[in-house]
Design brief:
With 300 residues, the protein is an all-alpha fold. It has one domain (6-294). It has helices spanning 6-18, 22-37, 40-51, 57-69, 74-86, 91-103, 108-121, 125-137, 142-154, 158-171, 175-189, 192-206, 209-222, 226-239, 246-256, 261-273, 278-294. Mean pLDDT is 44; it is low at 18-30, 32-200 and 202-300.
Length: 300
């Protein structure tokens, strides 16, 4: 995949479409400005994925799932048309290229984040804390209102709405997953600081095939928790009925599976992170706020 610019052009097109909503661009610009002065966050994330490198079971299962989806080209044709429309604007590519170039110069953050994940991987406390967090969020409609506004903005591109409606209809058969995800997003959406960080993170990682390897390692580690596997199995079973989306992603994952270089680097990052309690304190405070309400709700 690294030798091909087709994906970058498609992705550029998608972002170019979004340029009509200046609100998102302003958030993203702020995030990039913040990240340019501090590269510590990238190191934290590298470590998190590195811990997960010990298991390839998830990759094998996911590859099989993608292989099943490969029989349909309908989604590819629709997506190609969408990207072709977007290809006329290079403004986003230039801004994104500058951002990635700035982040690439420092690995300090990646190492710190690796340590954090190494600490968390040996304990089920995080799983319990996350369950409580989701239970608390399930009672809040604030996120739904904000998301409705976002969809209303997108309504000018009816093609996108139709594609997204089909995807949501498929997911609706697994109500447990939808409720859990809605709660998680609801909490995050209320903190604009997190949204800026996440926007920057996704933009940075999307430009590098190495990130996919890191993510594969992270998922592989989670496979040891049967609760997560059950949730994920339900999600895959739901997606199996919609063969349109995954053909392109199948080739992408197949390419990444051949290299473990990133996974090894990420392992080192997790080991380093354990010495920094600053992030843990920040995260504990955030979860503590949600956990107080969770105590009055049934377990999800």
């Amino acid at each position: 995949m690294a030798s091909s610019l087709r994906w970058l052009r498609r992705y550029d097109g998608f972002v170019a479409t979004m340029a009509s909503s200046l609100r998102w661009l302003r958030r993203y610009d702020g995030f990039v400005a913040t990240m340019a002065s501090s590269l510590r966050w990238l190191r934290r994330y590298d470590g998190f994925v590195a811990t997960m490198a010990s298991s390839l079971r998830w990759l094998r299962r996911y590859d099989g799932f993608v292989a099943t989806m490969a029989s349909s080209l309908r989604w590819l044709r629709r997506y190609d048309g969408f990207v072709a429309t977007m290809a006329s604007s290079l403004r986003w590519l230039r801004r994104y290229d500058g951002f990635v170039a700035t982040m690439a110069s420092s690995l300090r953050w990646l190492r710190r984040y690796d340590g954090f994940v190494a600490t968390m991987a040996s304990s089920l406390r995080w799983l319990r804390r996350y369950d409580g967090f989701v239970a608390t969020m399930a009672s809040s409609l604030r996120w739904l209102r904000r998301y409705d506004g976002f969809v209303a903005t997108m309504a000018s591109s009816l093609r996108w709405l139709r594609r997204y409606d089909g995807f949501v209809a498929t997911m609706a058969s697994s109500l447990r997953w939808l409720r859990r995800y809605d709660g998680f997003v609801a909490t995050m959406a209320s903190s604009l600081r997190w949204l800026r960080r996440y926007d920057g993170f996704v933009a940075t990682m999307a430009s590098s095939l190495r990130w996919l390897r890191r993510y594969d390692g992270f998922v592989a580690t989670m496979a040891s928790s049967l609760r997560w596997l059950r949730r994920y199995d339900g999600f895959v079973a739901t997606m199996a009925s919609s063969l349109r989306w995954l053909r392109r992603y199948d080739g992408f994952v197949a390419t990444m599976a051949s290299s473990l270089r990133w996974l090894r680097r990420y392992d080192g990052f997790v080991a380093t992170m354990a010495s920094s309690l600053r992030w843990l304190r920040r995260y504990d405070g955030f979860v503590g706020y949600s956990r107080r309400a969770a105590l009055s709700l049934p377990s999800p």
